[in-house]
Design brief:
- 2 copies of one chain form a homodimer.
- The first copy, chain A, is of the alpha+beta class.
- Chain A has a single domain (3-148), classed as Winged helix-like DNA-binding domain superfamily/Winged helix DNA-binding domain (Arc Repressor Mutant, subunit A, Orthogonal Bundle), CATH 1.10.10.10.
- Chain A has helices at residues 12-20, 25-33, 39-46, 50-63, 84-87, 90-103, and strands at 66-72, 77-82, 112-116, 125-129, 141-145.
- Chain A has a two-stranded antiparallel ribbon.
- The longest helix of chain A is centred in the middle third of the chain and has 14 residues, at 50-63.
- Chain A is globular, with a radius of gyration of 18 Å.
- The first copy, chain A, starts with 11 loop residues before the first helix and ends in a 5-residue tail after the last strand.
- At the A-B interface, α1, α2, α6, β3 and β4 of A face α1, α2, α6, β3 and β4 of B.
- β3 of chain A pairs antiparallel with β5 of chain B, so a sheet runs across the interface.
- The first copy, chain A, binds a DNA duplex through residues 3, 22-24, 38-40, 43, 48-55, 74-79.
DNA sequence: TTGACATGGTTCCAAAATAGAACTTATAGT
DNA sequence: ACTATAAGTTCTATTTTGGAACCATGTCAA
């Protein structure tokens, strides 16, 4: 399997690997969610090389997670903002952050937290079934081949 | 930042990138969740080179997501199974799969689905706050620097 | 007892991705 | 004219991944 063909895989996990399965993309999205928009800010904040950053931003644009937009004329300068698809990635980030904090422990505390926008209280994420409200875990869910469903 | 130092980052997203931020690891986890355990099965199913597969399995073992276990003597042969930490990654996979299916569309249907183990009905995942039950979205959640929380 | 098969790896070389640093372009301000 | 800003691009060195062959340890059948 070739790396660039991942967009074309029928398995959504494979396509997801096409998004986050490289260095930096996940952290670029994290920074974007924290409000960062400009090339130089991403670069300085992450310590990524400008070369790779430019490539990743192009990729994220091509995949539809971010869009490049002029924020001034003369000289025209562009920044990068999350699209709807990019914003909808937020729950995945939340779930992943929660998992990492629990399962890849570290001496120092996390440099950020997630709080409810309205109440300001810290959040405790749980993945649930929208229909039944039940929590979704490894045990409560089965992965079945698509052709066996019906 | 060096790739191997990611385990040592205080940011959980950075540590998460140390897990899934490479080629193949995400798909190895997908296959493990679908029940695959043996080296050759992973290899054939994924089309990954044996070289890289061996490396990834070692990494997943070192990170505590999988463990290597003998399944027969004479000759002793080992397979790879998810640990508790590995199984707890399932909701992240679910959320990511759901996101990819919605936001990276594809002509063909996904090769698998997730169903509730008890009822057998298809699942519709939503990330919620365990305390309030409210759905967690980009808009309902804020990311705040840790030092500003209290 | 020898030769094919099974299965979890390792080794070696080529190709591709990433790191690191310098350079480019367009314009404003002094 | 000179300096600063900010989004990129270009070039070379290093690291990661791909591809194929090989190795280790045993079983089983002839």
């Amino acid at each position: 399997m070739k790396w660039n063909d991942l967009n074309d895989e029928s398995c959504p996990m494979a396509r997801a690997m096409g998004v986050v399965g490289d260095r930096w993309t996940l952290l670029i999205l994290r920074d974007a969610m924290s409000g960062i928009r400009r090339f130089d800010q991403f670069q300085e904040n992450l310590g990524i090389t400008r070369h790779v950053l430019a490539e990743r931003l192009k990729k994220l644009e091509a995949l539809g997670l971010m869009r490049r937009e002029p924020y001034q004329d003369r000289p025209v300068r562009y920044d990068y903002r999350l699209t709807r698809a990019g914003k909808e990635f937020a729950p995945v980030m939340l779930a992943m952050t929660d998992w990492a904090a629990r399962n890849l422990p570290h001496d120092d505390p996390a440099p950020f937290r997630f709080v409810a926008r309205d109440t300001g209280t810290e959040i405790e994420p749980a993945l649930t079934d929208r229909l039944t409200g039940q929590e979704l875990t490894y045990r409560s869910v089965r992965m079945v081949p698509a052709n066996k469903v019906r």
